[in-house]
Amino acid sequence: SPYSPSSRRWRDPIYLDVRVLAATLPDAERIAADGAALNDTERIDRTAVWEAKRTVLEAVWSRGVRDPAFDRYREERGAALDLWGAYCTLAERHGASWPVWPDDARHPSAGGVQRTLRDEPDRVAFWSWLQFLVEEQFVASGSADAVVTDLAVGFSPDGFDAWEWQDHLAAGCRIGAPPDLLGPDGQDWGLPPFVPWKLRRLAYRPFAETLRANLRHSRGLRIDHVMGLLRLLWIPPGMTAADGAYVRWHGSELLDIVALESHRAGAFVIGEDLGTVDAEIQGRLRDRGLLSTRLLWFEDPAPPDWPHQAMAAITTHDLPTVAGVWTGTDLADQKAAGVTIPDNGDEDFRHRLRVAASCDDAAPLDHVVVESYRALAESPCMVVTAALDDLLGAEHRPNVPGTIDEHPNWRIPLPAPIDDLADAPLADRIID
Q1: What is the spatial distance between Cα 314 and Cα 322, in angstroms, rounded to a whole number?
Q2: Read out DSSP for 291-357?
Q3: 14 near 46, Cβ under 8 Å?
């Protein structure tokens, strides 16, 4: 899951476009054909995708041709990048979960880490090079003008960030959310929280570094579960989300850091303030200039009455697509996944679409999608977004909260490659 990342500071090299690199290799045509075949599957096979891309990257790296810009990048990122490279090298040898590594590698200060940096400089450099490539492609995409990055509320307990900062985490505790409309049973995200006084003792350096990494070459930042900047629900070992308790940060110091770092980066910030968020917290976020999140699925006022200081959308990755609701596919998916469903099924969502699109149940899907976005475009919100899933008429939501393998979360491809978006008639009409 992208919301249980190994690191919130380093980017996953699986997103690299390796086609240009592959074209320099002797078997370029076969590599291209194998890659195209992976796009034709019903589910995204990330293991196969990464194996294919890594084969190309290893082959290019082994040729020994180096870009001088990479040397400058390594010098600029310094010891932090070296530590990341050492971690990846150790993970190759010992597996992905650092808590089961040998004692001399289980902590960043351990002797095995220093030996890795000293004895395996080529592997450390390889993993550092992948970060360089990702950042190059990110910048080339026009990210500084168009991309809003997404900051997960936490990180995996057995990944890089937890390894580096293990001394400052509440061991055994997890963060989550209490029962609400989005998750009637509550949510246990399985992510470790920082101990507030320990993070404060570090002058919040880990948090500031995380913000800088996500704001680097970006136009804006969306903060998942933005209430977590003021308080987080902790779930003690052996308990459920319904038994958890809120733990508060010291004042609003995390908000202060968000304000400072976003100002330095010249970026706007969107807070995901859905679910159980009281008015006092929303007021503090508003006073700091964060944009609220307003969804057609949840708002009773019509879009023209929504606030200016907000991002408008119909849905999110955790909620149904328009096509999913209108065709009944999303309700069927939820039933198949065994999650708790409201007594009236998806009627609340269907009603909001009927109102937004001024239609009845006989209306064709394309009409409902376009007219719902026409209503959204009438909002005064500073940012208005359209989901890629809706632009392409996708029926399945990317993620069903509260499930792992009960639903193919994060593995459902879009109906068409992103490169074809410009030729998609439905996307054209929504954008217009």
Answers
A1: 8
A2: BEEEETTT-SS-GGGS-SSEEEES--TTS--HHHHHHSHHHHHHHHHT----TTTTHHHHHHHHHHH
A3: yes
**Range among 53-62, 397-406, 418-427 with highest mean pLDDT value:** 53-62
pTM for the complete prediction?
Answer: 0.94
- Cβ atoms of residues 353 and 363 within 8 Å: no
SS3 at position 359: coil
Mean pLDDT value across residues 332-355: 95
| Mean pLDDT across 199-210 | 98
Residue with tokens 């849905």: 315
Q: Is 108 in a helix, a strand, or coil?
A: coil
The pLDDT value recorded for residue 169 is 98
Sign of CA dihedral 213, 217, 220, 222: negative
β-pair type (148-151, 231-235): unpaired
* Buried-exposed string 373-391: b where 16+ CB fall within 10 A, e elsewhere: bbbbeebebebbbbbbbbb
Distance CA 176, CA 260 (A): 27
